[in-house]
Amino acid sequence: MSGDRHQSVTSHWKASASLLPPGPRAPSHAFSTSTPPPPSQSTQPENAKTFTMVKFYDSSFSYDYSFPAVTLAYFLRYPNPYSTHVLSTDVIDRRFDPDTQELHTVRLHLKRSKLPGAVLKILPRSLLGASTAGDTQAYILEHSVVNIREGWMDTVSQNLEWTGVLSVVERQTFRRPADIFRTNRCEKSAAAHGLLESGLNETTDVETSVTLHSKIGENIRKRRAARAAADAKAAELEEEQPAKVGFFKSWSTASIQRSIELIGLKRAEKSQPNAKEGMKIVLQRMRQGGLVAVMEGMRQDREKILMGRNDVNDRS
């Protein structure tokens, strides 16, 4: 079994007014990744927050596994041979809503990362908290809501560090196909170990989007604008001079911002296929030996992490 049937990937620029993920109590529709209207068509008041350009990465594919198996694998995906950069995972909140039949979970992941040389050329290591070799660590906050009865799960993950340099928000939606959902309203008994449904042709559709936004250029422009205003007042400069200097400085900081976002986009394009392969390994272990095989695989992967061995060169 291949593990996925089809995949489509796109990356482009989109307009967005906010990148903050919803809280753990947010309803499923709050996780929508639809494109907001452009500024000219926005229904917001004139004094609303100005739209900023962000980098967007989209992908969609299907796992050849049932929805219950995929959602369980999601919570058991760390560690795996494709995620040896994940050092730890902690559940900081989990609750079940009996009214909506939804499980809400908040987890905190600690990941090791090796910063690209291009970033180190733009920004100092001291700003990024990186070692001389470019190694650093970062916390990732993950919110998830799963509804087994209706057959969907929505997740949002966001970095908690370096947000002033680059904010990365990943949204995923897992869905049981509508035709399978209709034919399985009265589900049969689970397969061995109670983890996989007996249907041989069940699939789970997944849509992933990654939003990247760098504020480094905005912060630099603000500092330069304040410094230019102070210099202009002190030296009583002519009105035209600050405007001319500001144009070139604005161009340079915008270039820095775009460069950081482009680097982040390339890393997202590289890491997403590895994340999918890691999930497939967990699902294969589950199919072959149930929860026992999954836990044994996690133990072996954890030992490799402690020994500093990486089967897959993935530190994104």
Automatic annotation (TrEMBL):
Pfam families: PRELI. Residues 54-235 form the PRELI/MSF1 domain. GO terms for cellular component: mitochondrial intermembrane space. InterPro entries: PRELI/MSF1_dom, Slowmo/Ups. Residues 1-47 are annotated as: Disordered. This is Protein UPS1, mitochondrial. It comes from Diplodia seriata.
